[in-house]
Amino acid sequence: MLKTAVCYFSGSGNSFYVALELSKYINIHSAYYIPNFDISKLHDYDEIIIVTPVYSLNIPKIVQDFIRRLKFEGRFYVVLCSAGMFGGSARHVKRLFRQCHLNLGCIKRVIMPSSHSTVGFTPRFLAKAIISIASGQIKRAANNISKNENKNLKLRRVGKIKRYVGYSAFSAHLSVSDSCTKCGECAKICPTKNIKESHGTIVFSDRCIACHACYNRCEAILYRGFKGKTYVNPYVDFKAMR
Predict the structure, then answer these.
(1) Out of 30, 58, 72, 131, which residue is the most buried by the measure of CB atoms under 10 Å away?
(2) Fold category of 4-146 in CATH
(3) What is the pLDDT of residues 37-86, one digit of tens each?
């Protein structure tokens, strides 16, 4: 029997949820959160499923870097999660795997609620409806992966990819309110170590990938001086991601 691992990146919990749901249909031995993952562990597996959100029509910088570091002879599968704006993300993923000489199986798409609540908030009732519909998409993705399918992966040519497509200056507009207690939770949440406390002040650096994890999960963090509606997946326990 093949030994399978799933590696995921998630700011809002959506991709984490998809990774957990896949385990209902596929015999997944382990699930790993990409920012905290020791890449040497992958050699214990026969195939790897990568679950990732789509930001600015491509996969996040942190996932691109993860793929570039991979040295693995088994097969990979990729599941893209987005509110519907997938753009050329699948094409970018194919080219990236080809350039890294990695064996890529099928790429599947799952529509999830928007996690970028600063530009478009998804009400809780609508989010639950979208997640319910996504269950069928996740099941079909698991079925394709289980059958070892390899579809629509031909490329006429391998073009050069911009290294960090989708980079965002989101954090340039972040600040904290007077209610901030300097608890350090935002720094723990941030997957790129972009947030730190310096001389009693919360500082946002330039490594932000616009995952919105800090804004959505900390009430003291403001965007352009305001706190609007936020979104997190209602079915996950974020403590399990660490």
Answers:
(1) 58
(2) Rossmann fold (3.40.50)
(3) 988 888 889 999 999 999 888 999 999 999 999 988 899 999 999 998 89
